[in-house]
Amino acid sequence: MRLKHFMLLLFVAITHITLSQCSLKISGQVIDLDDGSELADCAITLLPMNKVVTTDSHGQFVFSDLCSTNYSLFVQHIGCSDTLIKVNLIKNVFVKIKLPHSAFELKEVDVMDKRIEMKQTQMRSDITGEELDKTRGLTLGEALKNVSGVTSLNTGGTISKPMIHGMQGYRVLIVNNGVRHEGQQWGNEHAPEVDPFIATRLSVIKGANAVRYGSDAIGGVVLVEAPELPDTTGVTGEVNMVGASNGRSGIASAILQGKFEKLKNFSWRAQGTYRKAGSIHTPNYYMKNTGVEEYNFSYALAYHRKNWGTEVYYSQFNTKVGVFSSAHIHNLTDLKNALELKKPADSLAEFSYQIGRPNQQIEHELIKSKTHFHLTNKWRLNFQYAYQYNKRLEFDKHKPLNDSLAALNLPELDYRIQTQTADLVVEHDNIKSFRGQFGGSYMHQFNNYLGRFFIPNYISQTWGLFATERFVKQHIEFEAGVRYDEKYLQSYFYKNNELYSPNLKFNNVSWNVGAIYKPNKHFNAFANIGSAWRAPAPNELYSNGIHHGVGAIERGRESLNPEKVINATLSGIFQTEKIQAEVTAYHNQFQNFIYMNPALNPELTIKGAFPVFTFEQAKARISGLDIKSTFVINHHWNLMAKAMLLRAWNYTINDYLIYMPSDRFELNARYQFKVSGNRYFVAAGYQYVNKQWRVPAQTDFAPPPEAFGLVAAEIGSLFKLGKQSLNISIAANNLLNTVYRDYLDRFRYYTDAAGRNIQLRIKMPLIIYKPKTKMKNEK
Amino acid sequence: MKNKMMAAIVSVLILFAACKKDKDLQPLPPPLTNSPELITSLKLLFTDSANTSTVLTAYFNDPDGPGGNAPVQFDSIKLQPNKTYLVNLLLFDQTKNPVDTVSKEIWEERDEHMFFFQHSGVTIQTLYLDVDTKSLPVGLSTKWRTGSASNGTSKITLKHQAGTKNGTITPGETDVEVLFQTKLN
Question: How far apart are alpha carbons A646 and A586 in whole angstroms?
């Protein structure tokens, strides 16, 4: 009987009659084997093409434009064994996949948390299922690089900030579990404080998306989405383990979730991750003090009734990151010396897990409470409140000279930000082909520093109102939205020993219009034009001092105006049986683009002369092209090619914008096969990153590094040990141990990038507890 | 029963989640004197070895430290040619009240620090008069022998060389680097 739970029941229903060779469709629904509930967020991979879709809130999915041949569906859902289904496609089919999710239980809650699907006229790229598994153990910034058009701005091998179309920091919004992530963005060496193991899906929306996510979503939005809480009883889970050779790192992450038998309206989830890594190895040496120690955990509890539900979520992120000690320079002479060295001064011959000075210690805490009401069967109301606390401590390379101060071992930089956000959204499903959302949001933020001054203390308040509507027909869809925001920024700082407390107000309207055109099964076109804006940030307004580790004096400008952008994105998806191609062309036209401009004269200090950078505004543009295509050669082989081209220009100074990604290309080949029911694959890839020669004159400390090419390889398998299914893969990055430096790595001045890294990944879905039907009958 | 217990535990965990709110947070920035250690000023005292009553000084003073306001005083070094001077070097942190004499702390950590004197355009011979516990020079106390009348520069550098001090300027990080105009006449 128990075996049944691990088996799959397949209903094949004929819905249409074949018309032509390659216009077939596999649609389907994933439901719970025992209680028939619809399973959302299942990742379904269509093989051999490796096309991944996730099921919607009704558990439904569709693959279209398929030929009459053999396919397999690879189904993954948290807490379930990964499952493979063969489909010999002759006619259009509807596949009902019954996953052994939990035991028999009479359902008392009928209407669950059904979200109203809100697709957008901007293309959204998801990393989920097998693709997400491949990124396990990477930081958020590194994992997102799988999406074409996304790169990252790195600080050594441990700190990585996601960059969408050359934009990062304040211009990229990260939405963590539905809450806009408010960390500390005022430095390029500040990575997002998010544990990617929480997510079952990472998504990137490229291009301005102000109306829906907040006026400052200029470059795009990153969505980190946790799975929906279970609506069937029992306890399920998943364990992920990653070991990597470079840095000798070990990561373990576990998730447990379930629904109570007695308290049927409650479901819950608990999750935790621990990571430890030591010195990173470049092809020729170890980098001293590049270890990481991190522990994160989260838990969630939801209560559901027929017409409403509420959810509480808490997460904590704690990390201690060593900063490569040779990169902690004190002045320009030190930087010049570092640039002249082929091998950095602090290159170690030995490996160590020890994290000494300089280092960063960061803590991020999030508490979220979310409630929804189904007002009618078409209308729904959501309310969400969240509190975030972010503490960032930075320790310099040396303790203070004064013994009593040194004994305290205080951080030289200590910033704490508290943020409260409240959102109210009303949404409606199809009313005469219209779907829409209206709402408002409020944010209160409080910054407080101890130690060295870099940005002032401030209190900021932002509120916004928005409305967006969609018109959906079979071949065409239209979308239009508008938003109004107001921001107040009250800062406190000393200037010539006097306390200043300027109060600024910014307000603006943002909008977007878009369309989707679906003339036939082979071609979909997306077009979107939208505006976004952001108020200048406190560091851009008021910073005044040496940015340590950068070797420059940064000066804010109090008269900065809000930065505004108009973004146009045009995307096309072309698909046939053998080829799938995705092309996105975009253009961002900036008004008042905020950037750092070198001042003419260096500033004299007791530490020597420092170059001075002031925050300036300019008319600028960023435009480019992202291409991704997959070629299916046969059932075993497929090829994937990606390209990213980007051009950026500052009209005001007639020069390039700094720190923009260079053009890059990627080619991957994959071979897959099955041996006695177990699935195996072998893959290899090559990435070429061109030299960024489009750089502004005389603003950088060193010329951009040369172009480089990296080889990667992976071998993986899904197999069953008795009843337990296991995913195991071994992957190698920088397989040839290539010596290179990346323009988008701030440590390229000091050191080569990391060498070969071999990772072992193990994923184990668990079914821990299932109430048995028998027991229930006995009672 | 078991599940009720679990429900209770989970809800208690969530309701009483240790919310790390800083009680001491306030909108006002911390007092200036609370800021981390800085070196704001460098003073050179030149004592004529033939006539100890004559003490010349050269002062670099940037009371609010690097960044912020420009230095308020930046003297030239003016010495007589063909003489020998005993030179004492003092460092201060003027953001502290009372003013912190950082050079005292440099002496306490002399095994990790060393001053360097690089003259250009002027003939000055610099001899170290002090050593650390490993007999490597420090430079808080030096002897300068001036040559013929000329104009040039003297670069004074303090390197922090924790565990790497070897008597040369190469290792470590720069704590101080001041380029004085030097006149011998």
Answer: 9
pLDDT band at A351 (very low <50, low <70, confident <90, very high): very high
Confidence tier at A56 by pLDDT (50, 70, 90): confident
Range of the domain at B171: 35-184
Q: Is residue B23 part of a domain?
A: no
Are A606 and B173 inside 8 Å of each other by CB?
Answer: no
Chain A residues lying within 8 Å of B66, measured CB to CB: 545-546, 553, 603, 605-607, 610
Domain A124-769: top CATH class: mainly beta
CA distance A598 to A650: 14
- DSSP 8-state code for residue B9: H
* Mutation to test the A interface, candidates B2, B3, B76, most A Cβ within 10 Å: B3
**CATH 1.10.260.40 applies to domain A2-101:** no
In a domain, B5, yes or no: no
Structural domain contains residue B98: yes
Rounded Cα gap, residues A8 and A21, in angstroms = 29
Which tokens belong to A473?
A: 């027909």
The pLDDT of residue A10 is: 30
Write out chain A residues lying below 8 Å of B34, CB-based. Answer: 450
In terms of Cα–Cα distance, which of A369, A395, A396, A360 is closest to A193? A360
Q: What angle do CA A255, A260, A266 make, to 5 degrees?
A: 85
CB contact B173 to A (< 8 Å): yes
- C-alpha neighbours within 13 Å on the C-beta side of residue A460: 23
pLDDT at B15 > cutoff 70: no
Angle A205-A208-A214 from CA coordinates, rounded to 5°: 95
**pLDDT given for residue A9 in this prediction:** 32
Task: Domain count for chain B, please give it.
Answer: 1
A 314-333 residues with CB < 8 A to B:
314, 328-331, 333
Stronger pLDDT, B5 or A345, i.e. the higher one: A345
Q: Which residues pair with A9 in a beta bridge?
A: A98
What was the pLDDT predicted at A405? 78
Instruction: Return d(Cα A739, Cα B46) in angstroms, integer.
Output: 52
| Chain B residues touching A345 at Cβ < 8 A | 164, 171
Instruction: Please give the ipTM for the structure prediction.
Output: 0.81
CA distance A387 to A417: 11
Adjacent-strand bridge partners of B79: B184
Mean pLDDT of chain A: 86
Does some domain include residue B55? yes
Residue with tokens 């022998």: B145
Label residue A552 exposed, middle or buried (CB < 10 Å: 0-12, 13-18, 19+).
Answer: buried
Kindly report, residue by residue over A404-413, the tens digit of the pLDDT: 778 888 888 8
Instruction: State how beta strands B77-79 and B173-184 pair.
Output: parallel
Task: Say if residue A100's pLDDT is above 70.
Answer: no
For the segment A130-179, what is each residue's pLDDT rounded down to a tens digit? Answer: 889 999 999 999 999 999 899 999 988 889 999 999 999 999 999 999 99
H-helix or E-strand spanning residue A133: helix A129-134
pLDDT for the residue A119:
58
Q: How far apart are CA B85 and CA B55, in angstroms?
A: 9
pLDDT score of A500 more than 80: yes
Percent above pLDDT 70 for chain A? 92
Taking the C-alpha atoms of residue A658 and residue A166, their distance in angstroms, rounded to an integer, is: 10
3-class SS of residue A643: strand
pLDDT of residue A120: 66
Tokens matching residue B34: 């609370």
